[in-house]
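Standup notes
- DV: blocked on the single-chain target, sequence here:
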Amino acid sequence: MIRLDDLQPGTKLVIKAWDHNISDQVETVATYNGWCDHPEWGAAVSVSYENTDCHIDETETDIPVKQFEKNIIKLAEVA
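- DV (later): unblocked, structure below
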């Protein structure tokens, strides 16, 4: 299991995310940017998705911690 406390900013993960273009869940690579404070959720995780259709007019997005943990599939392999 991947522990959030062990992740360093820039870590790439394979994660389940919502693709707004096709309105379906997809697997994509997300870059972990670090913790952030969200006005509605409190502590959250900031990520950037390689699949730009998982963003809504932004290059980074915030995810509630529990959702992020639930959607992590594995560490991405870096070539």
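- Follow-up: Helices lie at 65-71.
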